[in-house]
Amino acid sequence: MDTKKLLIGGGLLLGAAALAYRQLKTIPSGVKAVRPFDVSKFLGEWYEAARFDYLFEKHVDYATAEYSLNDDGSIKVVNRGYNYKKKKQVEAVGRAVFAGDEDEARLKVSFWGPFYSGYNVIAIDDKYKYALVCGRNRHYLWILSRDKNMPDDIAKSYMEKAEQLGFDTSKLIWTTYN
Questions:
Q1: Residue 54's pLDDT is what?
Q2: 22 pLDDT band (50/70/90 cuts)?
Q3: pLDDT at 15
Q4: How many other C-beta atoms lie within 10 A of the C-beta of residue 49?
Q5: What is the pLDDT confidence band of residue 178, given thresholds at 50, 70 and 90?
Q6: 3-class DSSP assignment, residue 45
Q7: pLDDT band for position 3 (cuts 50, 70, 90)
Q8: What is the pLDDT of residues 28-43, one digit of tens each?
Q9: In this structure, is the dihedral angle defined by the CA atoms of residues 152, 85, 68 and 76, taken in order, positive or negative?
Q10: d(C-alpha 64, C-alpha 85), whole Å
């Protein structure tokens, strides 16, 4: 086998291994998902109070997420918002499954076929009215509320928790609901 083919094969193998690792890693190191977690209380509509900006939500306001059970036990995820640059409503439909035990709020979500990323509820109140959610690394963070407006003291406590876990909350974008 010539060196070029060996390098290409090795590169493809490394790329596949990196993709497989990315699929397995669902939560940042040092961060714990909520346990015990009751998915039935989490289902329903949530308003995005704040988020880290990333490509798929860029220029989006009025953002909501709706969670419901699919027949196969997975969770249907419908994210909606208004893209004020494109002047149109946007929607993404995905599927979430538990990454481990169903009493731990560590999930994997996919909007693109077999490709999953972490979705972790890392703080939630007893009434399941407010939640702090992160992705597979510290580049993804959301603060969610059942109401369009989140009380300042709750927002502050979730920001403090996120900071303690190593998230840079100065990057949060607060969602508008006018």
A1: 81
A2: very low
A3: 42
A4: 24
A5: low
A6: strand
A7: low
A8: 999 999 999 999 999 9
A9: negative
A10: 18
* Residue whose structure tokens are 């996120």: 162
Q: Which amino acid is at 89?
A: Q
The torsion angles phi and psi of 77, rounded to 5 degrees, stand at: -120, 125
Alpha-carbon span 98 to 169, nearest angstrom: 27
**Tokens 């709750």 sit at which residue?**
154
Tell me, what DSSP letter sits at residue 150? -
In single-letter form, the type of residue at position 41 comes to K
36, two tokens:
């015990």
User: Could you give all domains of the chain from N- to C-terminal order, each with its CATH number?
Assistant: 27-174 (2.40.128.20)
Q: H-helix or E-strand containing 135?
A: none
Could you tell me if 136 and 28 are in contact, meaning their C-beta atoms sit under 8 angstroms apart?
yes
How many angstroms separate the first and last alpha carbons of the chain?
A: 64
- Band of residue 18 on the pLDDT scale cut at 50, 70, 90: very low
Task: Classify strands 141-145 and 115-124 as parallel, antiparallel or unpaired.
Answer: unpaired
Which has the closest alpha carbon to 120: 137, 130, 129?
Answer: 137
Residue ranges in 25-177 assigned as alpha helix (H): 39-42, 152-164
